[in-house]
Task: structure prediction
Amino acid sequence: MASAKLELEKEVSMPVVGVIGAGQLARMMQPAAIALGIGIKVFGEAEGSSAHQAVTKVGDYNDFDQLVEFAKTVDVITFDHEHVPTAVLERLEAEGFSVRPGPNALKHAQNKLTMRRKLTELGLPQPIWKAAKTEAAVAGFLAEFGPKIVVKTPIGGYDGKGVRVISTTAEVRDWLEGISAFGGELLLEQKVEFIGELAQLSARRPSGEFRAWPLVATFQEAGVCSEVIAPAPASSRHAEAERIAQSIAEGLGVTGVMAVELFELESGEILVNELAMRPHNSGHFSIDASITSQFEQHLRAVLDLPLGDTSSTSSHAVMINLLGVDSENDFLRHYPTAMAKYPQVKFHLYEKAPRQGRKMGHLTLQGQDLAELLAAGRACRELLYNR
Ligand SMILES: Nc1ncnc2c1ncn2[C@@H]1O[C@H](COP(=O)(O)OP(=O)(O)O)[C@@H](O)[C@H]1O
Ligand SMILES: [Mg+2]
Result:
């Protein structure tokens, strides 16, 4: 009897997902893994990370040997961030480890020029763009598409770091001088006069199943996402956004969750801004306001398990980021007061040291009356922001 039971346990033992990076995205995968009954192990860079409760190894993700040691303890490798060098991931794959999304897909989210070239090849709508290596090339693009253009570092940027709106070449001279750090080229883009920013979240698993959440509206302050409204209230481009996301997911062979950031123009046209191949800030609403959260879906997708229903559980959801106000306020002082005053709010704190502008947590509200949800969520945030 005892040995038969052991056999059965072996057969039904659930797989373990390994996450490289221990930020808030890895942190929010943990409760989803617990609910599904699958294992999760996180490779962190330092002690005291946001995902510390799931960290099993602290090390350097650029070091192949350390990654192999970690990979041997899990069934599939996935990511909390996009910084692991493609070459390292290719080596892991070559040694037989399962990496999802794979380096061939992920490289498009790691390098904005690689992405622009691929989207051009796929014929998908995007801003007018050009690669530039010299001040003369920047000047030429400014003359054609100015008075203002957008310049981006193709690699390493996030939360608006690595994006500048310029009207003279002098404003990117430092980037041109240090251009080798960005892969030898800068990305130039027309400055899009959008009426709004949108994000299309979706998931695809290796056997091909694809599911998308409702299109959402995102709001950025100084290049950092501050609020998300789901579904996007004004846009009529839901079907088109989903088609674009599916073309990208299939065209690039993406596995796992992918976010496509979009610009919406006055004409109604939508253009692709950038891609993320992992759970994304624009999808945090799904934890509390969708049948399947992006974190649960990501785990299902990278394990090639059937995907869950992405329908919303209310007519509207609002996600409000808690961005650090200074290096003191960890938002705990007024936590009990905010909870008492706003029982309808779902609170999420990431256990990160406070720093101005840093993503420290978020709030989610769902219900029937969008204006009411926004007002309550913003008032709750203001209360937490008080010293
Ligand atoms: N071509 C553009 N025209 C106008 N605004 C832009 C353009 N590209 C980026 N932005 C603005 O800058 C923000 C950050 O740019 P993005 O490329 O998404 O960088 P990050 O990787 O930091 O998110 C966008 O959300 C948008 O508000
Ligand atoms: Mg962005």
